[in-house]
Amino acid sequence: MNPTRLKKALINDIRFQVRYGFYLLYLVVTLIYLSLLFALPMAWRPVAAVIVVFSDPAALGLFFMGAIVLFEKSERTLESVFISPMTIDEYITAKVLSLSLISTVVGLVLLAVVIPGSLQLLPLIIGLFTGSVLFSLAGLLIASRVNSLNQFMFGVIPLSTFIALPALLHVFGVGRGWKLWHPGASLIHLLTLGASPEWMGFGEVILPMVVMLVWTGLFWKLTTLQVGIMVTRLGGVQL
Fold first, then answer.
1. DSSP per-residue letters across the chain
2. Contact 104, 129 (CB under 8 A)
3. Gyration radius of the chain's alpha carbons
4. Which residue did the predictor score with more confidence, 75 or 122?
5. Is-contact 46 115, C-beta < 8 A?
């Protein structure tokens, strides 16, 4: 990857998202989350906040990524992107980073506001960032395969269920430790550790961190292959 091209692509993606109101919409969603959380009893807020922050990268990564890529397809801007020297890896990295960085920051701020006191930054940052990257890759993987919002939603629903269901089971203590090999359960485990007032030790972070990195690598490979197929079919003609 060329650092200069990647930097320009990242800046262009952020400008695009600002211009079309993605960050403003994200701010509104975050304020709604905060209003709902503060309406809950104090004893419920930590668990509810972890669930909300877990859903935060899903909303931004999956749905926003889908909207961005489908918009690029409809406006036929991808042709101009890929006739430039930009590589597929640079395209994916810029897209994923532009969403994952803001998602990580907002997740940290939301937890700091809702759960006063000390947060464990190491598991929180690892969980928020890797979770955001994973969800963003999933959104890009699906969006690169489809050409309409209906098709995108048809692909997102089963994938969201696959990621979210074991995570919710883990929150409520249903099932055994095998769930930590699942990305959703590992992500919410990291967030739960991060929202805990006491440091549980680095040993608690290792397994879910490794699981998240392995799943992220798998989705990166699948997304790279699918975006490559999308590029060869730009303009409706398979090259």
1. --HHHHHHHHHHHHHHHHHTTHHHHHHHHHHHHHHHHHTS-GGGHHHHHHHHHHHHHIIIIIIIHHHHHHHHHHHT-HHHHHTSS--HHHHHHHHHHHHHHHHHHHHHHHHHHHS-S---HHHHHHHHHHHHHHHHHHHHHHHTT-SSHHHHHHHHHHHHHHHHHHHHHHHTT-S-GGGGGSHHHHHHHHHHHHTSSS---THHHHHHHHHHHHHHHHHHHHHHHHHHHHHHTGGG---
2. yes
3. 18
4. 122
5. yes
The tokens for 80 are: 């101009």
- Interhelix angle 203-232/88-114, nearest 10 degrees: 140
Q: What is the pTM of this model?
A: 0.87
CA dihedral 179, 182, 187, 189 (to 10 degrees): 10
Cβ neighbours of residue 68 closer than 8 Å, sequence gap 6 or more: 13, 16, 17, 22, 95, 143
**Residue range 114-161, pLDDT digits in tens:** 887 778 888 899 999 999 899 889 889 998 888 888 888 888 888 878
